[in-house]
Amino acid sequence: MLSSTSGHDSLESAGAAGPVLRFENVHLAFDGLAVLRGVSFIARRGETKVLLGEAASGKTLLLKLALGLQRPDSGAVWVLGQPVSDLPESRLFALRRHIGMVFQESALFDSLSVRENVAYRLREEHELTEDTIEQRVRRALSFVELEEAIDKMPGELSGGMKRRVAIARALSSEPEVMLYDSPTGGLDPITSTTIMELIIKLRDENNVTSLLVTHRLQDAYLLATHVWDTQNRRLRAAAPERSHTSFLLLREGKVWFDGDGHQLMNSGDDYVKTFME
Ligand SMILES: Nc1ncnc2c1ncn2[C@@H]1O[C@H](COP(=O)(O)OP(=O)(O)O)[C@@H](O)[C@H]1O
Ligand SMILES: [Mg+2]
Description:
single chain; 277 residues; alpha/beta; Rossmann fold; 6-stranded mixed sheet; 4-stranded antiparallel sheet; 12 strands; 37% helix; binds adenosine-5'-diphosphate; binds magnesium ion
């Protein structure tokens, strides 16, 4: 069971026992206009939940709620056993160290080198030594296969490389939870696939729990039908039931569909079918 806990150690154990992410009957309106009207779902450790829905259906809001950047009008959001929707700002700050974020814009600091961009979040933690920071930065860059770019400036990188640096930055604190908002937005199809490959590697090798917003059905399909083959260092086709990926489709503020890739692709629901075309 999830419970309200304080302190670093209990945070980890609470996350291991129950779902890593839990939304419970979340309602949220702006200026009297209801955007979320009772959204409930969970994501278990190692699971990627793909958030689908038309523009303005509330996908980005779900990510902001998970970060505690937005509070629900009613209902609750739990991350790693912590009641995000009720935590004071000081406790949210500590919790966010366990959460990595990747947004479409990459949002790198143009005046900082790749090394300093990736180190940015680690420096906020203050207590780490330079050696530890350098080690973590290199580990994160090596995960995205960009160690050789460590001394480059963002202006020298391609769009795909920037996105990989953004992923490395999110990984620097070795988060248990990742939130991706259109991580392949604005990239060409081949580069998009390399980004999705990293996301799948994180899911399967590191057991990271994620929420991922995407407009590209190809991304959703790849997540549902492939796993990371650790031995051969590449993607391998797998049944949707084995890919640790589920799908949530928002419609009119409610969860219209929540299930795995097989259920999604075989759904008889007209709205789901139209959405998947
Ligand atoms: N801070 C805010 N103030 C007012 N309206 C907001 C705010 N954040 C989101 N909204 C509205 O909520 C709806 C859902 O937004 P969003 O989650 O960004 O949609 P999307 O599914 O496209 O990511 C939109 O209509 C948006 O205008
Ligand atoms: Mg959005």
